[in-house]
Batch of 2 targets.
Target 1
Amino acid sequence: MTDQAMAAALPAGAARGFWADAWRRLRRNKAAMVAASLIVVIALLAFIGPTFSPHAFDAIDWDHMAVPPGGPNDHWLGTDRLGRDLFVRTLVGVQISLQIGLLATLVSLCIGVAFGATAGYLGGKIDNLMMRFVDILYSLPYIFIVIILSTLFERGNIYVLFLAIGAVGWLTMARIVRGQTLSLKRKEFIEAALASGVGTPGILARHIVPNVVGPVIIYATLTIPQMILFESFLSFLGLGVQEPQASLGSLINEGAQEMESAVWMLLVPAGFLVTLLMCFNFLGDGLRDALDPRDR
Amino acid sequence: MLSYALRRIAGVIPTLFIIITLSFFVIRIAPGGPFDDEQTLPPEIKANLEAAYGLDKPLLEQYGRYLAGLVQGDFGPSFKFKDFSVTELIVQGLPVSLMLGLSAVLLALLIGIPLGTLAALRQNSPTDYGIMSVAVLGIALPAFVTGPLFALVFGLHLRWFPVAGWETGEFRYLVLPVVTLALPVIAYIARLTRGSLLEVLRTNHVRTARAKGLPERRVILKHALRPALLPVVSYLGPATAFVITGSLVVETVFGLPGSGRYLVQGAINRDYTLVMGMIVVYGSLTLTLNLIADLLYGWLDPRVRYD
């Protein structure tokens, strides 16, 4: 509302809303822009790349077992000890990592925002109780909860598992949103909404949640690499994706076991994982600078 | 202070109780039991096994029995390591894990604080940028990537340290695991120290100390670094949780006989009691260390008020 009013009052060209301003700041941040483009490139490669290779991710090539990259064959990044194409397997792993990262982040975002906004807005005893619950879950290392949950589901159904992980990953999000809500709820426009008879759900949905979008976006971007890391971590330990399905974590685990004879099996998936994690972290930092100028 | 400390200590027990209760029921609701994958098992034998471990009793009764055992320090028998009780397994593995974790935190403090200080004193110099870039990398790289890479470079190629394994009292088996575990903590502590030291260096009391003509060394070490290290102290709580998590990976990568791997194996085998035991032990460890870090913070910073 205010943005439009201001835009109308100012001469054309001078008007710049919050989002345009943030976008301009983000574009000037080279590290964040490079990271963002790399993420897009890797994502495209992961989803399109495998179709260009003549090999399937689980096909065994009996003539080329554990061949290094760049050999006189069409295994561009070599094969593992079963003769499966590493290029395709790694890209399939990236696909899974990206999907799970986004899915789990989305789940944690929805729960975290709803929980935090409700606790912060209602306040008092309910707030105390709700945040006490968050504190208790917080006091246990995250990975414990994830390992307990991973026993809950049939192994192999990684998406269900990650819905569950996302459902635990909302704790920090809830805290951030609650803090924002506490300061928001004393603002005049909330009072105005109350005075004009808007109910609690309406105020939460129309006035509180839209105003916490900035911090939520920042934190969500930083949550994606965490979720990717958790998936890889679980798959590395053998609790996540199961054979013959590949994930970056399980590929790194296989690579680590074969590193004496086939070092590329470790380096290829590790390289992709590290690049992805770095990119999301840089993008998150860039978004923080762009959306929260006070922080600088 | 004392009443605050007592209140905090009293607060740990209900938290632990809730954690135990929640994890007990979540694990039991899970499909599949510890004797499921031995497919040749005739139903009568399976029933006998379950009876022997009390798994045929109602869930609430099992829960009561478990709690009663727990109070007496009995974590119950392990379902998969048939000749061991969970207590025995943990008592065997925990010293290795504790040594690994404590060494990692100590190493991180010993390296992270000086690095952060150096970066802050040479702000915006190549030294600063160098240290901070390495720190970004150190935080982003997970232990299951750095671990195998270290083993590859320093174990296989340079042959400085053993790739994996363990012999009691042999220091060289600890080097690579501890460095792997400490690396992200070093990076984080360096970043914290740099940031907070830069802030403290701009405060009035540091200017006063300089104006008095104190030697720079003394200004930094005595007047600036002390308050600057407070954030590091409060990071020690999360750091221990982080190190405990990392030890699961590091023990797997380097084949150490610690207790962290029991949590993973227990989850894979649905060894209820083993997983529960690990959660109780590691949960109380985390809660206690967090509590100590909090109390230490209050003791060091007289500005903290308790009410």
Target 2
Amino acid sequence: MTSYAGGLKSGLTFLILWGLPHLALAAKLDMRPGVTDMSVRIQQIHHMGLWVCVVVGVIVFGAMFYTMFAHRSSRNPTPATFSHSTPVEFVWTLIPVLILVGMAVPATITLRDIEDNTDSDMTVLITASQWKWHYKYLDSGISYYSNIATPEEQIYNLEPKDEHYLLDVDNYLVLPTNRKIRFLTTADDVIHSWWVPDFAVKQDAIPGFINEAWTEIPEPGIYRGQCTELCGKGHAYMPIVVEVRPEAEFDKWIEDQLLAANLAGEAAVAARAKTWTLEELVPQGEAVFVKHCATCHQRDGMGQGSKYPALAGSAITTGSIPDHLDRVMNGKANTEMQAWAPQLSDLDIAAVITYERNTWGNDTGDVIQPVTVYEER
Amino acid sequence: MVAHAEAVPKSRHPLLAFAARWLFTTNHKEIGTLYLWLSFLLFFIAGAMAMVIRLELFEPGIQFAQPEFYNQVLTLHGLIMVFGAVMPAFVGLANWMIPLMIGAPDMALPRMNNFSFWILPFAFTLLLSSLFMEGGAPNFGWTFYAPLSTTYGPPSTDFFILGVHLMGISSIMGAINIIVTIVNLRAPGMTWMKMPLFVWTWLITAFLLIMVMPVLAGVVTMMLTDRHFGTSFFNAAGGGDPVLFQHIFWFFGHPEVYIMILPGFGIASQIIPTFSRKKLFGYHSMVYATAAIAFLSFIVWGHHMFTTGMPFVAEMFFMIATMLIAVPTGVKVFNWVATMWRGSITFETPMLFAIGFVMMFTIGGFSGLMLALVPADFQYHDTFFVVAHFHYVLYPGAIFGTMAAVYYWLPKWCGHMYDERLGKIHFWTATIAVNTTFFPMHFSGLAGMPRRIPDYALQFADFNMVSSIGAGVLGLTQVLFLFIVIKTIRAGARAKARVWEGAEGLEWEVPSPAPLHTWNTPPVIAEGEVH
């Protein structure tokens, strides 16, 4: 007896020691529950589907393994001769129908609630473009772009990758807790899709369409997601980061943003009033280039084939200044070259053009002033 | 219906004679062989592309393929596997086996048969040549959603459009040929409900092809006019609708996925009774279930588009219609199990592949059922969960089905037995590798990894490394398959006419290897003898 008890005890100990880390693994294998009421309900729908499949699978595969074992020719040399049975076939048609109805009902109820976009407390318009997000708070008018913040050195394995590799952006989308937030999604160029798994919100952003989704987040925190519709070569590089703040802090943040927008307006006025030198503009232009232009045109200005033309010695970057301004500010129709006028300040555009005209062997010596950009707008 | 091959004068240079024989052949067996070899070649080309994808995804960061090139490889992998590997393999099997199985001397339209094959090498040359063009190959995924493929597509998109047109013409002609053959050339006494299941599933597949390939041709033509002739079907700025593209594409695309699986159902329904030494259980319900699946495939396309902003009622409709597919599919799986039940089962390689097919296709069916639940789909959509799902129905589904068929009928084709030991090694390594490759994708998808990305966040690293190792092994096992096939063609034990003792059907009445011309006199099918 004692040896049995000892065996049982060591067996249990082993199970616990082996099992605990594997429980953690099980959590890693499953869909995450997320943080909203809806994401938890969706995980329950997922579990319902999963367990129905597991039970049916155990029965069907169990029957298959049993028959492979019990009815193999060495054990069962004489095969039976039956080849149909109407009652059995009727039953195994009917039972799946009942199971499916049982699954469809809760799924439909949850779906109805997902699609109920009414009675929202605030609205954020999400506009996607290759390869960044633009957020506009329709209630306060604040708007800004959100770009990937992971440096190229990490992507190309020149530097160690940090914890939030590919999941970090320069400007977070800031949202309040406990308010029903309505998202409107649309796109400027191709189809993108805005997804934050912890909210279980995934909505395509389609040019010419405005789609709706909503969430209500109980917990403050940082939540990360990604674009989930193939949108070109930067598809892997348009992450989403949402910072959820308690309501009061969020309201304070909105006020700060409005104030900052005023200050930025004043700074722009000041930038226009000043005459900038080549030495001042080139470093600033390089920073803008690395952040916004280098993905396509490459840091060395050599581009990538005809689709992403070289800027070193090109007709635009060494030709007339108005053409160069026009290309940068208004983009080139039907290509991935976007209009940067709405995205960058006068100073940034002046700086990046100045940089492009005075690097990689381009030596025009031209200095473009923010006021020139302002007048072009 | 005399093959042109025989008309070639013997005095010609042997190489010329060889070329002429295969270029001008109108013999269903030779054309079947051509289809099978072309699909085998394209399977390896598209498989090599899968290796590039898995190599890049082995670790986070960009190592081997720049994102732009990665997207091109991803697109061609999908297009070539679908249109170049799976579909021509099934058409090749149809060419070889349908006339043999229904007691017909050849396909009904032999010259068209020749034409529908010989279009294909040109179609795929067009498609593959785009890799070497300025601006690169198509880079918008095999689903080529507008406006990424129209306004923003590379110049080579036009080659892709022409290539798809040619593949479509080939498929439509092949389908017409199969339908005409089955309807008109069945041997006397071969009534509808005596036809082997492989013939039934192909008949239904051929109707699906005729229904949807013109839709595909329509959508690529609309792309072409959007790109070059100033129309705006899919361009929102011109009053068009990018979502319209998805509706048209998936109206083609969903039946297309059944085109890639129904012949596999037919193959399993031939092989499982043979090695269970027992008649197929529920023959009639098998036929009706296949027809039901084909019908339902036309009303479920919206389940690919749940996140496009579809209204609630439409989402509900597509969810319920999709879930209904589980019923006839379930009937098929239950019937296969019941066929084995109290049989006298042996496990030769074709049987192993057929059982693997049933089990792993069912896993893909399960995840398909989960994907149908719209609320959960919002989390699964466009993640690796979907990649896991459709690779389970296509690799251990369509491709294992084809391999089962090759092992089953290869002795009939070439008169030699394959090496059973190697066949079993092939099956087991491929089965382990296919699960190592695709099962972890369920987890990376659930953890939140979007599909079609060349680079990913660190939390997905473990699963991707496992998948990549599995993929490497999986690629190697198919080299073994090629070796086994060549070895069998060149030598091996003589195959009897009835290769498998438990096999029933007309194809086993002709000698092995099957002579070039069979059933010049139609066989007589005895009253009461069923499939």
